[in-house]
């Protein structure tokens, strides 16, 4: 087996000798030193940086998708030469030189590429495969240029990336590529472009292809290509559980009332003027309330049974904290203003210009009498995670229209009853009351056409209560806002991460936000 070695810009071939039907480690080291004159020692590592010694050398060389690095170190410990090679005679994916930065690409044959994908995916081999595919196809160079310049990809360039790789996948593996092929391409993408990796996902590449659900950008493109053919594959979608507000979460709350004591407490608190006493009774009936919320026959009347939510601020936060604990409860207020808000704004600046987006962005720069307060920058997230049509019967609404499903404005002096009658029985939303949008005096969470007062009169704290109300009252997300609220749930609060079904777009935006520097 021949291996190409590059040292200080000079390429040479080095043979891996065999002895007693095994690849000989010590003779190979001597051959490698021939290409690295005046170096007393060289080191051998695999693609993940783990040292390789004589005991495992032969086994690794014979593996399906292994690669090694041969290098020397200067006095500072800096890697100065490197050879990358695959353990299949005559087949190479790439050879890189740290000192020169040059890269020599040798095209992998289709047979070799299939061999690479038979076993568990190797990140180095996957990265090389994607690298070769992009450099061989028209438009591939543009992807590298944009990523190197911006440390990310726009939606348009991401679609180009997916189209190129799916075309390459079909060319090499047919119109119905095996699952491990798709996984390897997805792994190759996030290995070659690290800022596209979703840190919150188990592997980081699920938004490109998730083998458990069969979803992701690569899968969507494959389906589009296959749609008009007779060879459409039939796959069973094993979706992750759609964990969300209606999921019954286990709690370890103690000192809970039951039976007659519970009913007596519910009756007593309805007319009590003792707010601290009301809070204690609400806390003591928590488990009973959770049971009612998950009973279809009783959930619709929860505010009739517990009307003190309507005049006792802070009960939403209290119940949510009992569900998930203090740490989770404080995450939005703790992280949104300092971490997420500036990054969401930065990412939004790459969106296609539009009146609504421009107005929201301008509110971050200077106040005006007609736009929302800058702290309602959460609305911008809807433009990054726009609504999607749910089936052929349901039309798709715009991101601007979806914003109205999150927050509404009511001028001071307007009748609350009249306003809510006009709005109808929408999903929970935030009602902002004031003289103008930029100067709100009161915030309410609206549920079942009833107004629940928010504790803190700031936009950030009010939105925090709006989100929590979904879990406290076990109410599904507005269909048009599913991606929006799922992002808030899994990314900001960290609730049911890994078990909640997330769209590729949610994972993609999370990766962009995580890798955005402000």
UniProtKB/TrEMBL annotation:
Region of interest (Disordered), ranges: 229-278
Q: Which domain of life is it from?
A: Eukaryota
Ranges annotated as biased composition (Basic and acidic residues): 232-249
What is the name listed in the Swiss-Prot or TrEMBL entry for this protein? Answer: Uncharacterized protein
Q: Which organism is it from?
A: Merluccius polli (Benguela hake)
